[in-house]
């Protein structure tokens, strides 16, 4: 059994299955190949610039001050390492499935299932947070024209005020509190994803162009109201304060990897997928840094703990008309994020279904629209129904930790791929010998952060204190092992840095999030051993 848990799917088999569309095995067809570099770049920007830049950036700025711009750079570098690893996989394995398929090739079936299950956190569960954020901006938009929705239609039970509870209709003694706009936008986006990638592409390209113009307008206009005194001190709560915004800032970057799920709909995936990921990541990073500097320059960072920071800062300088434009842009921006994630999740399920890990219906391709129809509908239900009742904070933290975990396995998977000769027809991750560089960087890290490391390894506070550092202890063990292997086996530098940097960001998300994530993974393992293990195509072939 232990051997079968790590059975791997060969690259040739994966490419053959995708090329044939598995018509005979599953009754499915192929997808439309219509996406080019500009479309993939637009999809990447659509996924990244959304709820993060319009909402969670305020929370991060409150903790880190102007120094949060440094955190955006750190996070972008971390994502950059991961993006290089994704690009290597995407060029070698140009099929739908993203990190799930990549893990199947390198780590085996069990790891692939775990990654597929984790990606539900990134795409489906993450979209719940985006839908909730969309609802807030949409109501702000309605309020601007004097048509606000009643509180009980845009709330959940966690954040409903006593006034909202009193005004809500009741079923018996239970008040009815729902987030109706969040549900309705998920229904609309699911329909758009269902009817075809061509229609989704056109919608995404138009909305991306609009929101970039608005963001550039906000940056230029806001620059005239920046008071540089607000940038001092640059890190008012130290580097630890900056790192408190990790979850919020990383959530702002989630989505660039969703581009890889559209591999089977690209005209030239081996060339265009890497370019689309890199272009979108670079553009978004520049915009994030500029926005964070403008925000913290216009008002003191202590005032930015609000749900709509961009609109808030322009209200403070008496430019309320700009707030209305921002609300329009926020609605459009979060709509594009919803669209890209609703496209990505069904394609991962489609790949898992092709491998037998999910029922065959998940890989069914609509004969007319050429989309994974059943998987798209299930994704809409999984996102839309919880969006009616959940709050934003819970799903934001879960989404970030699940995504980082996927990034770690992708970076680790690249280390297991056999090296190939130079190929000018596709992207290749440059090999940099990490034998001496990795140990040197670890030593430099210890020197720079020795105070924080000593605090984490101090057991003076007892269980109540050091239990929260358990994730850091795990990181320390992994860092030591990776350093040893880098020296002995001359591991490639870029995937090693991607793995370690993602793991370190995970340690900053708190023990509570790790516990919830562990419960999520255990639930996935129960499903795997009760259904997927027996129904896997590889298992059937062995039998």
Automatic annotation (TrEMBL):
Principal subcellular localization: membrane
GO MF annotation terms: amino acid transmembrane transporter activity
Organism phylogeny: Bacteria, Pseudomonadati, Bacteroidota, Chitinophagia, Chitinophagales
Pfam families for this protein: AA_permease_2, AA_permease_C
Entry-linked InterPro entries: AA/rel_permease1, CAT_C
Protein's UniProt keywords contain Magnesium: no
Membrane topology: Multi-pass membrane protein
Name the UniProt record assigns to this protein: Amino acid/polyamine/organocation transporter, APC superfamily
GO cellular component: membrane
Transmembrane segment boundaries: 40-58, 70-89, 110-134, 171-194, 206-226, 238-256, 277-301, 321-344, 374-392, 398-417, 429-450, 470-488, 509-531
Record key words, sorted: Membrane, Transmembrane, Transmembrane helix, Transport
Domain Cationic amino acid transporter C-terminal, first and last residues per copy: 493-536
Species: Chitinophaga rupis
Location of the protein in the cell: Membrane
